[in-house]
Amino acid sequence: MNVTKFEGLDGFVVMDLEGAPRAAGVVRLAPKVLLDGAELLARSITYGFAAYGVQASGASLAINAKPEDREAALGAFVAEVGPL
Fold first, then answer.
1. Which residues contact 23 (CB under 8 A, 6 or more apart)?
2. Most buried of the four, 15, 61, 70, 74, by CB within 10 Å?
3. Burial classification of residue 25, based on how many CB atoms lie within 10 Å of its CB (0-12 exposed, 13-18 middle, 19 or more buried)
């Protein structure tokens, strides 16, 4: 499992399978998203893909932001994940 921390905001990306041709998952925004929960979510998405024979990795993206900071955090998130 590969975990990459964002540079411009408090958050991270979890990719379950390195080298997979593609990945998909969910973005979670909360005051504190826990790493272990994000890892389990990415793994469960991978299992879902595997059940249907899809060669893809599960992913989970986390943004840690208080309610008053969400707008700025989302803007930073969009700028940072665009190249991905």
1. 15, 16, 17, 56, 57, 58, 59
2. 61
3. buried
| Residue-wise pLDDT tens digits, 31-64 | 999 999 999 999 999 999 999 999 999 999 999 9
| Two tokens, residue 71 | 């707008």
What is the DSSP annotation of 22-54?
-EEEEEEEES---HHHHHHHHHHHHHHHHHTT-
Indicate the pLDDT class of residue 4, thresholds 50, 70 and 90: very high
Name the pLDDT band for 6 (thresholds 50, 70, 90): very high
Please say whether the beta carbons of 64 and 33 come within 8 A: yes
Tokens in use for 66? Answer: 């208080």
